Predict the 3D structure of the following.
Amino acid sequence: MQGFDPAAATQAYLATLTPAQHALAKAYTQGGHWLLLWGTLAGILVSWIVIQSGVLVRVRHGVEAKRPHPWLAVLAVVAVDSLLEGLLTTPWDAYAHWWREKSYGLTSQAFAGWLSQHGLSLVLGTVEFLILLSLLYALIRRAPRTWWLWSGLLVGGGFILALLQQPVLIEPLFNSYKPAPPGPMRDEVVAMGHQVGVPTDKILIYDGSQQSNRYTANVAGVFGTARVAMSDAMFKKGADLAEVRGVVGHEMGHYVRGHIYIMAAETGLLAMIIFFLVDRLFPWTARLMGASGVAGIADPAGYPVASVLFSVIALIATPLTNTASRWGEADADRFSLEHFNEPDGMARALVKTVEYRAATPSKLEEFIFYNHPAVGTRIRRAMDWKATHPPTPPSAPPAAEEAPH
């Protein structure tokens, strides 16, 4: 486009927010960086308290005295530890995930509603941990020297299974998902799905605003469980048809490009590396934490020790995992632009996410902490695209869209 300046257009989009709004977003974002550290320290403290109490050793002894089956001991110890640590970390979680969100205007949820859903998450997480850790400890018993090598397959496979059941069994417990009402928006999303091969039998709107005011959408699930879901917060923030095309096109990019399977492979590989380090560092860490009565890494009573190691190593690996995530997000942006050509719709949508992700971090801050490319960078890429690609007519007329109820 002759006479179009991508840099000036990017600045114009960012300037639609006031300096005060950018400053608030920066404060929220940089405060969130510290939460990574403080959250890890809180988890270490809670694990140390549980280890010092000796409760898990007593639980293991009690189970083995009655029924000496290793898998029963694992189930009992993991259940007690998960619920105990979950309860002890609830005050921190309330601060980090409710009070702080509330103070920045990013949630309207009452504390009672948050607490009830937190409790449900704790129960569901405990069930998932029971399954995963039962299998993991079985690996440790059967292959004490190479268990960490097989753990990558276990974690990667578990990742896929979790994604398979998430939209069917888990998410409906927290939100109400309803078919998008007939109209130009639904017609457009259906046309987009047909264009790129995304299933269009499940186009849903969910009441995400009950938990968060964040502007978001997603394509979740694998195989027959795949669905397109848009938070009602999008429409409460005035999303138009071009924004829907840009945002949903991005989410469809994750699905079509197979990012779910790439993430599963990456997660499995990272788990393998972390578990190798856990295997080597466990004896030293157990002594440091005063884990008396813990027989070794195969003893489920020592799970809090392994959990501390896992969380510390994962924290150190944050720049690596965020870099991989940023690659996937940038690829999804490219997909949306290539197939749906909505640079301005994407830019308008991205501006609405600045409130929880500051737009222009330093390169070092972005590298370490950002799991998405910076909003300023993403808008500039969209404007660079716009400079060389003429607009295409939408597949549905851009009629006025009423916010779904």
About this structure: Residues 343 and 382 are 5 Å apart (CA to CA). The beta strands are 177-179, 203-206, 217-220, 227-231. Confidence is low (pLDDT under 50) at residues 395-405.
